[in-house]
Amino acid sequence: MKTRPLVALCTAWVTGCTFAAVLQYGGFGWGLLGLLLIAGALWISLPVHRRSILILGLTLVCAAVYWNWNDRHNNSILPSLLQQSPQQMNEQPVQTEGVITNLPEIDGDRVSFRMKLYVLKQLGAASSLPQPETVMVQLKLTARQELQEAANWQRGDRIALRGTWKMPGEARNFDAFDYRRYLRTQYIHWMIKAEGASAIQPSALTVNGPASWSWQLLRWNDHTRQILGSRIEQIFYTEDNGYMKGLLIGDADDIDPEQFASFSRLGLTHILAISGLHVAIYTGLLLWLFRKIGLTRERACLVVMLLLPVYVLLTGASPSAIRAGIMGMIALYAASRGLLKDGLHILCAACWGMLLYEPYFLLNVSFQLSFAVTAGLILYVPLMQPLLQKLTSRLAGPIAVTLVAQLISFPLTIYYFNQFSLLSFAANFLLVPVSSMIVLPVGSIALVLSYGWLQGAIWLGSIVSWINILSFRMIDWLDGLPAMLTIWHAPPLTWILFYYAVLYMLLRYGSDLLGWKKEQISGDSNPSDRLHTAISGIGDIHPTAPLPPVHRSMREKQYGIYSHKSYRMMSPWLRRRIIGILISPCLLLVLVIYAYLSPLQHGDGIVQYLDVGQGDSILITTPGGKHILVDGGGTMDFGQKGQEWRKRKNPYEIGLKLLVPLLKQRGIHQLDAVILTHGDHDHAGGLLAAAEQIPIRQFVFNGTMPKGSGLDKLIQVLLEKKVPIYGSLPGLKLQPDQQTELSFLAPIAVTSGTGVNTELSSDTEQPATRYASAEQFSNLPAIQPLPRKEEQNHYSVVFLMTMNSRRFLFTGDADQTQEKGILYDLTSRYQSQPLLRQQNQQQTSDNPTTSVPVDVLKIGHHGSRTSTSAEWLHYWQPALSVISVGQYNTYGHPTEEVLERIEEVGSDVARTDQNGEVQIRVNADGQLLRRTLLPSPVSSK
Question: For residue 261, is it within any domain?
Fold first, then answer.
């Protein structure tokens, strides 16, 4: 507090904001009371530090109250103004007038922008809002010629809009991305959906329109960015111009999605985020240029300080760019005045200023990574450098910076992205210098040169492009190496804080001990002068005074005269560091192992019916920690010939956007089995992304292929990865652990063609999991063509799972004809096995030939009337029926007819369209516990 007061105050402010953010949805009052009690206890127990405790405590409480006040006032006034509830407003038509507040983004047939509302029109009457409110507008174009009209819309345009109110989508699976909460941090509570460019008309609204100097400035900025982007496309090759846009002006919209994914997996996306490195390079170039034209150092610093905000605006004004710009301006001002510059103080000043202006910056991933890595470089690099003293200075500096950046960003990377590449350090060490020292400055020179000599800029840009292409090839090669991408479940906040503390302790103690050893070996005539600054508890040492006993013991150790008494003669400072250097690596290793391992099940099994819209995807985690994925959902693509203009650059795909992130977030390192019930896209579409990113031990499907090429790429990926593929047959069993068994009931008829294993285990009395080894797989005969079946529902894989003595039935999209076949097969098998009949009679009082109760039934085909017959329900008598169905599906699923059938057998119902994700946990005693993300709008029976 005395040496760095701003750092202490900023830390207290960030802590208070974090405290309020954690308790954002409840418990803030009790938490604040707990903080006051802790502060009171510290006040009593530490009387010497009461002043510091008072100042820091007040700062922390003020920060928490400020955050909470800002969050409580972040509400929409529209429902009260319209005198409707949010549910009543949803899907209602709206006419409004306002101002476009950002440059509209055009992606295929969709245009999105933010709009500040000033006037609402209701029942033909217009009323002004007491205060403007920002909404998100999503407009779908209806004709190709509307693209040009949409391209003319600009920030600051005053428009009238007709559309429909829409509540932003919320998370429908546990721990999934919540778009509604994200928009709320942008002070946006509503969306307006519109169709066709004609829904937007010019308005004569008398508000701050384009005539305002602020809108003119922002329009100039947008126009300049567009001009720079067009010039970049002229200078650089097509393959890398999107990358150069991101690197030079912070515009990452045109980067190839697959290329960006490779950057992300290797931890290289920070190259594309305008940050301190970019600001430092541009600041250095400008300072050099202004000094060359004769400006003094002070005047050059002031001029560059004034130009930094312009650069931040031109590069998109992301939180990391704002942070770097503020720090650069403070540092330049201090340099121009000859003031003492402390990087940590400058960083804290920027952090405090940004959080005072916008508290929600704290929740921004870019803000967190930017400040965490910058603070880590300031604090940890000086501690890392002594550990690398045997390396040359040219290597030690870059290695220390890269290693510290990786260590600091690691917790946030696994928390937000749930993955970390073991090659991230190598990729950053090799490629970041290339991009920062060659590509960025040379590319900037080429961009400036193009306005005076375009051909020369193109020649220079071609050199940069060749370097980029070589870098891309290296990235693809690194990204393609097997087993290098590790998957992590999101650790708690306490784990992240403990990780940083242990890492600091390890580097600090290691650095101190190496510094002490260096003093011992140096042979200085007055070693006590140096040692007294490193070893505490000795007191002031005069240069001519004899060495204290602890120093003699260290000298004895140096010359081999060391005894067991030496440790007792060491100072407490040295003892603490020796103990710390022994304990901290072990603690760090334990923390990393804990974060990597999947959460323990403690004998529980869990079945998770994921909400993937109109489709199926079920994740089973057995008591033994095995993971089985049943189906993967999928997004239908109804693209038609001649409508290619509608295709979006990065369309929403269930596998990439929802399924794979959920699997990674839950710490699933591999899928022990993937079961595809049938080949329809709403069940199979998301499995391709899962197969590409998550190891699969075996794949089970119905042995047929749908018409067309829907499954071809998935099967090809599985074959390339040498995943054993099995066809399902009735009577086959899969036993992933001792508490779980899967018995396959259908399809009745399936191919037995070579190249596809048609059995998991032929022994029904001793079921076991069979995994084909790589050697066995390579010796299989050539793949024979599988039969193509257009109607896949009739060939759905149906299986019964017993887990901790509870029974779950999975049906895919089985139709009533297949249900009758299964019932006939089961009845025939039952009648031919007296022992089985006797066991069933002991388990149920009902007639076992007509009823075999299950605990949970997955209703077939999303509740369609073509599935789930009355005979099927009466046979299984489910206690709970789960329906996986899309929230806004246009098929009318589930039908009233099926719901009535379920009600007749007295089964409770859980639906993903109403409840979101449905989780059924079975503990070791067989007790069932149901959890849903959303409460059901209707009472459950």
Answer: yes
Burial of 831 (0-12, 13-18, 19+ CB in 10 A): exposed
141 within 8 A of 197, measured Cβ to Cβ: yes
Do 479 and 502 fall into the same domain? no
* Per-residue H/E/C for 204-270: CCCCCCCCCHHHHHHHHHHHHHHHHHHHHHHHCCCCCHHHHHHHHHCCCCCCCHHHHHHHHHCCCHH
The CA-based angle 874-879-885, given to 5 degrees, is: 90
Q: How many domains does the chain have?
A: 5
461 plus 540 within the same structural domain: no
Amino acid identity at 263: F
Residue 394 shares a structural domain with residue 519: no
pLDDT in tens, 885-917: 998 888 899 999 999 999 999 999 999 999 999
pLDDT band at 749 (very low <50, low <70, confident <90, very high): low
- Mean pLDDT confidence for 160-175: 93
Last residue of a domain, one of 490, 518, 551: 490
Q: Do 712 and 834 share a structural domain?
A: yes
Asked if residue 786 is part of any domain, the answer here is no
Asked if the structure places residue 939 within a domain, the reply is: no
Closest of 678, 622, 629 to residue 655, by C-alpha: 629
Among residues 209, 18, 21, the alpha carbon closest in space to that of 99 is found at 209
- pLDDT of 553 above 60: no
Same domain flag for 485 and 500: no
Query: At 630, is the secondary structure helix, strand, or coil?
Result: strand
Please give the model's pTM, rounded to 2 decimal places.
0.85
**Which residue, chain included where needed, has tokens 């510094």?**
515
> pLDDT of 600-636, one tens digit each?
778 899 999 999 999 999 999 999 999 999 999 987 6
Three-class DSSP category at 780: coil
CA end-to-end span of the chain, whole Å?
Answer: 60
Q: Which domain holds residue 62?
A: 5-72
Rounded Cα distance, 239 and 868, in Å: 52
Given 490, 505, 537, the domain boundary residue is: 490
